[in-house]
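In response to the reviewer comment on reproducibility (Comment 2.3), we provide here a single inverse folding case reported in full, input and output, so that an independent group could reproduce the run without further information from us. The structure tokens appear first.
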């Protein structure tokens, strides 16, 4: 694929992932759906499995940002080690691509956990299990999580 086509696909993945996050939430799923629709290689079972990774994993805020987790899943769907090759080595190319994504994400957003991004985006952290806490977070973040979701989708396309 030439450079212009890749840029166009990356822009489309950004728009789709961002809009899905604004409409439906679950940033890891939004990234995977956007990538499924733009570059392929993501199956519905992977999208379903990503649902629990939202909000730092189980909406706890403690773990990896769901957008980053979705991007890592997308890269692994393309470059990861298949079950029948588990005894064939570590498949370092996948880890290299994942590390590049994590480092880029950290540089851009100031951390990698859901709590890190909550602090960067709003100056506070929230209990996503509390209706009041989630409502306050949703209002305070505006479209910042949607932007992060779109950026991860864009970066994944650029790295393919």
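Designed residues, in position order:
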């Amino acid at each position: 694929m030439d450079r212009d086509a890749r840029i166009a696909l990356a822009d489309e993945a950004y728009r789709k992932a961002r809009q899905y996050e604004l409409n439906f939430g679950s940033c890891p799923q939004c990234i995977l759906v956007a990538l499924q629709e733009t570059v392929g290689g993501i199956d519905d079972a992977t999208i379903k499995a990503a649902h629990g990774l939202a909000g730092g994993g189980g909406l706890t805020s403690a773990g990896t940002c769901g957008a980053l987790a979705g991007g890592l899943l997308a890269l692994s769907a393309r470059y990861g080690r298949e079950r029948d090759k588990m005894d064939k080595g570590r498949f370092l190319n996948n880890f290299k691509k994942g590390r590049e994504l994590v480092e880029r994400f950290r540089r851009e957003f100031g951390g990698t956990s859901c709590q890190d991004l909550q602090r960067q985006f709003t100056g506070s952290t929230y209990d996503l299990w509390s209706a009041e806490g989630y409502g306050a977070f949703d209002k305070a973040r505006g479209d910042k999580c949607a932007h992060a979701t779109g950026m991860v989708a864009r970066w994944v396309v650029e790295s393919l």
